[in-house]
Amino acid sequence: MEKNKNIEMITGDPKNAINKLSLPIIASMFLIFANNIIDSIWVAGLGTEPLAALGYITPLFMILVGFGNGLGAGGNSLISRYIGAKSRHSANNAAIHNLILSIIVSLIITIVFLIFLKPLLELMGAETVLNYAMDYGFIIFLCTITLLMPPIVGGAFRAEGDIKRATLPIALAAIINMILDPIFIYTLNLGIKGAALATALGPAISLLLMFYWIFIKKDTYLSYNFKDFHNDYKMYKDILVVGIPASLEQLVLSVLTIFVNYMLTIVSGPIAVAVYTAGWRIVNIGMLPAIGVGTAAISVAGVAYGARKYENLRVTARYAVKIALIASIIVCIILNVFSNQIAFIFSYSEGSAQLEPLISSFLQLMCLFILYVPFGASAGNVFQGVGKGTTSLILTTFREFILVLIFAYLLGFTFNMGEFGIYCGMLLGGGIGSLICYASIELYINKLIRSQNPEV
User: Fold this and answer.
1) Residue 154 has what pLDDT?
2) In contact, 142 and 197? CB cutoff 8 Å
3) What is the pLDDT of residue 329?
4) Which of 92, 125, 264, 307 has its CA 20 to 30 A from that of 425?
5) pLDDT above 50: residue 1
6) DSSP states along 275-299
7) In Å, how far from its chain's centre is CA 452?
8) Spatial CA neighbour of 163 closest among 67, 26, 290
9) What integer pLDDT is reported at residue 263 of this predicted model?
10) Residue 220 DSSP class
């Protein structure tokens, strides 16, 4: 198989590949999450109710993001395995299947969300801010295709080691959103609708840039020439075998957020939801090193698995956890020390000033959650890389939807600890579940190595 420098990098030393792939991913993810934070900051200027409305839409929006990242992981995994097996023709064909599938899924999700948006919001307990939530949500889900496709196409770029093209358009979308937010929300006086429009327009431009590289410039390693396309339903299946479980993982996380919002509404009302919405976005930024390293591990693990280099698979899993944990410790310390300053950016207006001490306390406690993420994220993404998406889903569901939810309910309601108990339960369940996830990937890799070398 003809190689270029990107392919040589991704098929070489796993540690070097993770280092080179993860840093641009983390940078682009930082811009994306910073963009979400800035959304919250500008919307906070409109008052507590619009910010709470954003909190009710966030889990639904993350389901959409999850489908994009999930299918991107599915395409990434399949293409990486073909590259590792030195089958370029199959890798090209898989990339086209990935593109077609992204369009089909985008159309289906648009229809489903537009039909069920209002009932879902009512079910989540958003009646007091329903108009704000509908104004924001309708625009977001009407533009599903522009939000969904960039991470899916980016997954194919990551599979061939072209991390620049995988991350630059997504970063560009975030920057455009940041610029448009104050213009649409305040200058054009569109309010929360303006925030939604800004969120949708940025990815549309990034998608056009990706299509320019693929169909006009045509200088990508993978070929998207439809004359050479051979429809293979097994490829759709192979992408979905990883993509659907990976997407459902985000669904699980979003459903968990819905339940947490509901529990917080019961114990403290919309103010607690607003605090959780703002504070959890900051915690999500703190998770970026682990998530970025884990995302890089999908490609590296897929190549190692396709080449049957199982020792490289072990190196990938362990090294990913190591560097992600070091970065997570540093981030946790920063969030704890500067919690008051960070909280202020969500409480600068008169209508939201009451949130500052509450958000600060939230950050000081929940920054500990970041320390567990390297173990769960790295293990789950390595499972996805080798095509075991269902295993990753089962582990994530057990961790987030069973352990986290059960402990949050027990401490929050059974032990009558209220809002503080809910947060402590999330920490306890997340910690136990993440360690179980990492133990599972170690056992799986050891089994692969023994099957290849019975004497080991």
Assistant:
1) 87
2) no
3) 96
4) 125
5) no
6) HHHHHHHHHHHHTHHHHHHHHHHHH
7) 34
8) 26
9) 92
10) S
